[in-house]
Amino acid sequence: MDSRVFRNAMGKFATGVTIITTKAGNETRGMTANAFMSVSMDPKLITISIDNNAHMLKKIKTSGKFAVNILSDKQQNISMHFAGQKEEKNGIDFDFIDDVPIIEDSLASVVCDVDRYYEVGDHTLFIGKVMDLYLQDGNPLTFYCGKYGCYQEVEYAN
């Protein structure tokens, strides 16, 4: 099967948009990702998937910590910045929780210690033990078929 066809099929799954952040030494690093999911409520665990060629891979392994920042529909420019699609002229403002960088004004920031990781195919799956959270109200930025979108509530007939 052609890789492009496979990628197009995977793009049919609508997702939210996240920025994975970490700090290794004095370097704060971020990358746009939509490969994120919750794994367990007890203990509280999540998973992220990082390409084995991504600079972020070594940074997370070095720091042993990362955050998943779930973006609002007002943060498309930040997603594009970390995806290398557009330079954010005003820079990116970070807050910190336990010395882990988080993206200001995200809908949620989930701060994790690396519990374990597995190399699977051309990606590495990191299981993160949730150590802290930040939440705020708003609507999510979405991604579908290679395009950004926004949440639309669906009303159901009674």
From TrEMBL:
Keyword field contains Protein biosynthesis: no
UniProt keyword annotations, A-Z: Oxidoreductase
Domain Flavin reductase like residues, every copy: 10-150
The protein's Enzyme Commission number: 1.-.-.-
GO MF annotation terms: oxidoreductase activity
InterPro entries the record matches: Flavin_Rdtase-like_dom (IPR002563), NADH-dep_flavin_reductase (IPR050268), Split_barrel_FMN-bd (IPR012349)
Name used for this protein in its record: Flavin reductase family protein
